């Protein structure tokens, strides 16, 4: 009896598998890729290994199939693409803007904000948020960058006395969190001096849980997560409750306060027109004063965008800063040249605040950051979903296909970047950057209409933090090398280890 039931179930699964794949198989039959198993496809090729092994499999496929290949996960077709000429078709288009299915997990925290939304909602939100990154608003945030970087160097001081290796990642995480809270919401959470704060712990918890789920296929499904990881599910729900409650309270308080301020002024100014004033304009204020189709954004709409900025603005920037510090500690010649540029722009006073103009003049610093982003991109992969049949270099990619863009592989392609494993900031100087490199070959901030809206913000924040650290400390090549893991954000299983010594001018 049991055998009969098993045969019936297996037969049904095989039939359904064949039925669901048929149309897409017909369309994608010519796309190169590994052999597939009935029902499971190539599932076991990726799920029986850890993250690092998956990276090796992706790299192997990327080389074997010349940057364009397909795999099946049960009845879900996925395409791996790394050729710049192919990526331009997708990334430059306003039609191919839907994020991949894995981003659905982020929706628990971020809802349908700018990172996860698509279609008309994404277009309208992008238009609303763009003024928040006007250069005059960014100029106002430089004070916040400098203040939080000052706290950062004080927190690091104990390690300069010991001159022993330490993991710099937790320190940068808290500094970046302080920055993004103040610039996004206009509130101080004092993460660096009070890491036990309820909100700070909740951000840490939800980020850790999301990254764990994204790296583990089995618990990406909400039902399976609730059944087989119930303790972590409760921890996730508690963190979400704290995060959403905090953001909602800040929004409501600021809405009331802003209405009072505007009433006193007897007029409502466009925040983008008022950006020359000394008052800082956080993202929250711009959202509160914005409309879509004549209607103001609801508190839920605003929370989605604030939470999105919180996620994107602290984890990715943390990764970017940490790997720059690591590479500088291992390349004393580059560190020396960069420090000389900093002294030439700012002088010898360690305590004098940096200005927007100072940061703009650090041209070699830009080259250093760009090269670090090439070697250790904070967002190592991009995931999209095709919403219509698309011709890619003679192959038809069917609607519904998941797209993986392995940025971390592309930017180490020796056919594009000579000697790609070598840290060489000079490859990004003005004279060298004139080389004929496809603009879709170097995309640490993505590219096209869905590129990172906050990339100028991130560059300024990174410049500020790195400059402040180098003005106070010499970076030493201590500790083990990072062990990078690929997720939505580039991390390291063993931290990012450096040593520091008090800087003597």
List keywords for this structure.
505 residues, alpha+beta, Cytochrome p450, four-stranded mixed sheet, three-stranded antiparallel sheet, 13 strands, 53% helix, iron ion binding, oxidoreductase activity, acting on paired donors, with incorporation or reduction of molecular oxygen, heme, Cyt_P450_CS
In short:
This protein has 18 helices and 13 strands.
Q: Describe the largest sheet.
A: 4 strands, mixed
Kindly estimate the percentage of residues that lie in beta strands according to DSSP. Answer: 5-15%
Total tally of structural domains: 1
What would the CATH topology be?
Cytochrome p450
What is the name of the CATH superfamily?
Cytochrome P450
The helix count comes to 18
C-alpha termini separation: 84 Å
What does this molecule look like?
The chain is an alpha+beta fold and 505 residues long. It has a single domain, classed as Cytochrome P450 (Cytochrome p450). Strands 1-2-9-6 form a 4-stranded mixed β-sheet, with helices on one face. Strand 4 and strand 5 form a beta hairpin. Helix 13 crosses helix 16. The longest helix has 36 residues.
Indicate the topology.
Layout: H1 2-28, H2 43-47, H3 51-64, E1 68-73, E2 76-81, H4 84-91, H5 107-110, H6 119-129, H7 135-162, E3 166-167, H8 169-185, H9 198-215, H10 222-228, H11 230-265, H12 283-288, E4 291-292, E5 295-296, H13 299-330, H14 332-346, H15 356-361, H16 363-375, E6 382-385, E7 390-392, E8 395-397, E9 402-405, H17 407-410, H18 455-472, E10 473-476, E11 484-485, E12 491-492, E13 497-502
Parallel strand pairs: 2-9
Antiparallel strand pairs: 1-2, 3-13, 4-5, 6-9, 7-8, 10-13, 11-12
Helix pairs in contact: 7-8, 7-18, 8-13, 9-11, 10-11, 11-13, 13-16, 13-18, 14-16
Protein name: Cytochrome P450
GO molecular function: heme binding; iron ion binding; monooxygenase activity; oxidoreductase activity, acting on paired donors, with incorporation or reduction of molecular oxygen
Family: Belongs to the cytochrome P450 family.
């Amino acid at each position: 009896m049991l055998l009969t039931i098993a045969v019936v179930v297996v037969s049904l699964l095989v039939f359904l598998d064949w039925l669901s794949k048929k149309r897409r198989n017909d369309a994608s039959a010519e796309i190169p890729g590994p052999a597939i198993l009935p029902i499971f496809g190539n599932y076991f090729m990726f799920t029986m290994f850890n993250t690092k092994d998956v990276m090796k499999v992706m790299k192997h496929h990327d080389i074997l199939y010349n940057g364009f290949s397909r795999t099946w996960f049960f009845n879900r077709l996925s395409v791996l693409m790394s050729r710049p000429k192919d990526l331009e078709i997708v990334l430059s288009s306003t039609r191919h803007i839907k994020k991949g299915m894995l981003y659905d997990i982020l929706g628990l925290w971020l809802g349908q904000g700018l990172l996860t939304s698509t279609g008309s909602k994404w277009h309208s939100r992008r238009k609303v948020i763009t003024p928040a990154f006007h250069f005059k608003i960014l100029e106002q945030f430089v004070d916040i960058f400098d203040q939080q970087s000052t706290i950062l160097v004080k927190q690091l001081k104990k390690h300069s006395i010991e001159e022993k290796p330490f993991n710099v990642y937790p320190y940068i995480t808290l500094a970046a969190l302080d920055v993004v809270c103040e610039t996004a919401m206009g509130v101080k959470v004092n993460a660096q001096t009070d890491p036990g704060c309820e909100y700070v712990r909740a951000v840490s918890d939800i980020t850790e849980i999301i990254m764990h789920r994204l790296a583990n296929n089995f618990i990406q499904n909400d039902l399976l997560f609730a059944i087989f990881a119930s303790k972590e599910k409760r921890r996730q729900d508690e963190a979400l409750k704290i995060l959403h409650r905090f953001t909602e309270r800040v929004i409501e308080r600021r809405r009331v306060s802003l209405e009072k301020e505007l009433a006193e002024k007897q007029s409502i100014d466009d925040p983008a027109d008022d950006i020359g004033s000394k008052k800082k304009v956080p993202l929250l204020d711009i959202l509160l004063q914005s409309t879509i189709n004549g209607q103001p954004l609801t508190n839920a709409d605003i929370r989605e965008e604030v939470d999105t900025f919180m996620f994107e603005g602290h984890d990715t920037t943390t990764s970017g800063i940490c790997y720059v510090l690591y590479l500088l500690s291992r390349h004393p010649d580059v560190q020396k040249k960069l420090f000389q540029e900093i002294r030439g722009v700012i002088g010898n006073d360690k305590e004098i605040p940096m200005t927007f103009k100072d940061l703009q003049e650090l041209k070699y610093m830009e080259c250093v950051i760009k090269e670090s982003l090439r070697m250790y991109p904070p967002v190592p992969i991009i995931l999209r979903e095709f919403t219509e049949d698309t011709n890619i270099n003679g192959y038809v990619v069917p609607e519904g296909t998941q797209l993986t863009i392995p940025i971390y592989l592309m930017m180490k392609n020796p056919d594009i970047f000579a000697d790609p494993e070598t840290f060489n900031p000079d490859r990004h100087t003005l004279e060298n950057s004139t080389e004929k490199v496809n603009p879709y070959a170097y995309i640490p901030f993505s590219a096209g209409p869905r590129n990172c809206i906050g990339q100028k913000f991130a560059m300024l924040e990174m410049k500020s933090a790195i400059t402040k650290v180098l003005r106070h400390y010499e970076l030493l090549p201590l500790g083990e090398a990072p062990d990078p893991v690929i997720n939505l954000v580039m991390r390291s299983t063993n931290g990012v280890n450096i040593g520091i010594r008090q800087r003597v001018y």
